[in-house]
Amino acid sequence: MSTAHIGTVRLYVTVFAALLFFTLITVWVAGHDFGWLNTPVALGIAVTKASLVVIFFMGVRYNTPLTKVVVIAGFFWLFILFGLGMMDYVSRPWLGVPGR
Amino acid sequence: MQEARHSYLDAPYGIASWLLTKDHKRIAMLYLISITIFFGIGGLFAAGVRLELMTPEGDLVSSDMYNKLFTLHGVVMIFFFLIPSIPATLGNFLIPIMCGTKDLAFPRINLLSWYLYVAGALLTLGVVAGGGVDTGWTFYTPYSSQSSNTNVTLAAVGVFIAGFSSILTGFNFIVTVHRMRAPGLTWFRLPLFVWAQYATSLVMILGTPVVAITIVLVMAERALHLGIFDPKLGGDPVLMQHLFWFYSHPAVYIMILPGMGVVSELVAAVSRKQIFGYSFVAFSSLAIAILGFLVWGHHLFVSSQSIYAGLVFSIITMLVAVPSAVKTFNWAATMYKGSITWESPTYWVIGFMGLFLIGGLTGLFLAAMGLDIHLTDTYFVVAHFHYIMVGGAIMAFLGGLHFWWPKMTGRMYNESLGKVAAILVFVGFNLTFFPQFVLGYLGMPRRYHAYPAEFQVWNVMSTLGATVLGAGYMLAFSYLVYSLFKGALAPANPWGAKGLEWEIPSPPPTFNFDEDPIVTEPAYNYKPGREVHVG
Amino acid sequence: MANPATPLGSSPGANEPTVHHAVAGHAHGAGGHAQAHHPKLQHHFYSMEQQLEASTLGMWVFLVTEVMFFGGLFMAYIVYRTMYPDAWVGGSHHLNVYLGGLNTAVLICSSLTMVLAVRAAQVGSRNGQIVNLILTILLGTVFLVVKYFEYASKFEHHLVPGPHFDPTLPTAQQLFFSLYFVMTGIHAAHMVVGIVLMAIILVMAWKGQFGPDYYNPVEISGLYWHFVDIVWIFLFPLLYLLGFHGGPGA
């Protein structure tokens, strides 16, 4: 495959170390009460770890633009489900619910 | 029997070669046989419903049995007929040919998708044999997960497997259209049928998994008592409805978009004219697919979803009508000043356009939340969706089946009978379902087998219409099957239409093209002036 | 959805450019391609590159369906966590963060060995493929064994929703545990499919079927494996870490 980009072992081990490092951080943060910050930090770290896996381990950075669009579209669609779905739950106290 | 020509139908020979085929055309035919059987089964359930509804009392069947009749009618028709219909038959057959290639990207997965369909279908037959299921095709909780004592789990597994089949079809089409088009075949030279199938495949990929997980959760609640939707534990049954309709609304676009693709092809062919506003029609397919994911809450207007959410969903639902309207205008504009020939596909297409128009417009009535409060769960809704799914999708499917029948089977069917069937279906359909708009407006609820006596005249009209409709379908089935044995051999291009599929023999050889085509023309490149063709 | 009740031995889409059929010697002389027929080139593709691109795109499209599949579960999680924050924290308290963290580390290691296996195929190292695939399978198995012990402990402590659920706990915690079992259960089922897939790839690697010119199955199986890892990367904080710092809750 002339167009294959072959990552180096060093690159993969570095990403691996970063993933383990972030795991330790997230456990440490969770063990302390930072109030409302705990959740966004945990999610932020999870997103970072997932991004590292997607970009480096899954090789998306070397894939075609189409593949990148596919990856992004998948996660975007999830946000449609979450967003419009939660819109219902969050807004129930606002204008009420038919019949009540 | 006339001599058969050497084509994908007879080489290689033998039943094993069909059951283990990788040829997309053979798989399309396998699907065609399977979905026809299930259309018949779904039709039998419909007949049961319509017979019961001839009299105001619930006197033909018990209410439990009636629940099972309409549930199975819905499950079979939606999951085992409409959703696979055009994609798995016409789509499988035509997409590789329209893309100028030898097969879909993943032929073995294509075959797997058929086997999964069959597995799901057999499980559903098992459900029927085992006493049916009575939750409604929408299987809302907590009835489906806790109270119903019918074969809910088995039906759920059958639908789950059929959904997987659908996903595999969609994923195959997406990769094929992206990666396997012939040289010179840019996106904007593709037939609009391919655009429509592509948009449908996006919906299949993004939506079906959500109903799959919904099914898993309902099964988990029912079988393992993991009460996710159980109100006694604080669970929310409306959450199930959100997850269910997140797929099931886009599912209706899975059912209509391919039909619209067929209509684009047929309109161009019978008018001998380039589709008016090709790129608008192409982008409208994508717009419908995408916007279709943003409107599911209009099924939850009276479910205790918040009014605010209802407002948002209502507005977006109005918007999703726009691309459909764009397409309808463009088809009409294509026919205007076209060289229209009154062949059987023309009848089917014009039937589609009228019925789809009514169905689509009545959707706007239901999109308005204030009006929907009164019309929801009445026969108005039933009439609306049957206008789209039967008047629209099935007429388009039959129109496409007629149009491409010579290509797929190498035989010509009886032209006059083709026209008669289209007229019978059109008349029968309107007689069946237009009275249901009136019934819904007058307040008759859906899923009830007993009703006030003043509704009887409309119900009787509807049942009579259903008989005519059924006769139309059976007529079409008869002459199409007859043509397989006694029909005239078809030429490569009986309609004088433009398209890669018309440049190869009828029926095509196994690998479609003798030489890989190189495409230099836009789609529907009809020249002005009437082409004479030999029928 | 990725694993129907009867595992077929391969996850659809993962193994598609399957190596069981050699296409050499096929009589159809059509097509304008001038390159020699690689034995793994399927007849409807005109080049190995097109085949690899198609299978990679196909696997990603399939993974998008998996994202939406798990997404429904995450949606339920979000809704109920918003409705019952205390029960969520309380339920999470019962989960063992150390076992969960260990499993997270195990999966991260397995992702490393997986990507090294793909790399070994790309550079043509048969030993590299075999060692790393075996390690990946072993790590996956460790994950499942740990999960087994976790589940056993839930049964013991009456944390399984249903008639035997601990009556002293708030009922909303049953929702938490229902989601816990469904989410981790479906994830574990995906792991099982992944391990079976890796075993198949291992056999093919053992037979020397992969090299720099053909490594599609390893790559796309790797994509599946990494995806299953990513799901866990989200499950771990959302299920386990929520109650770790002893916030309010039973």
Summarize the structure.
Chain A has helices at residues 9-30, 38-57, 65-95.
Write the layout of secondary structure elements.
The complex is a heterotrimer of chains A (100), B (535) and C (250).
Chain A: H1 9-30, H2 38-57, H3 65-95
Helix pairs in contact in A: 1-2
Chain B: H1 15-19, H2 24-52, H3 63-98, H4 107-129, H5 143-147, H6 152-179, H7 192-224, H8 237-271, H9 278-291, H10 307-335, H11 344-367, H12 369-375, H13 379-409, H14 415-442, H15 456-486
Chain C: H1 48-83, H2 85-93, H3 97-123, H4 126-156, H5 172-206, H6 216-240
Helix pairs in contact in C: 1-2, 1-5, 1-6, 2-5, 3-4, 3-6, 4-5, 5-6
Characterise this structure.
The complex is a heterotrimer of chains A (100), B (535) and C (250). Chain A folds into two domains: 1-62; 64-93. Chain A is built from three helices and no strands. Chain A is an all-alpha fold. The radius of gyration of chain A is 19 Å and the shape is flat. Chain B is mostly helical and 535 residues long. Chain B has a single domain, classed as Up-down Bundle (Cytochrome C Oxidase, Chain A). Helix content of chain B is 67%, strand content 0%. Chain B is built from 15 helices and no strands. In chain B, helix 9 packs antiparallel against helix 10, helix 11 runs antiparallel to helix 13 and helix 14 (415-442) runs antiparallel to helix 15 (456-486). The longest helix of chain B is centred in the first third of the chain and has 36 residues, at 63-98. Chain B is globular. Chain C has a single domain, classed as Four Helix Bundle (Hemerythrin (Met), subunit A), CATH 1.20.120. Chain C is 65% helix and 0% strand. At the A-B interface, helix 3 of A face helix 8 and helix 10 of B.
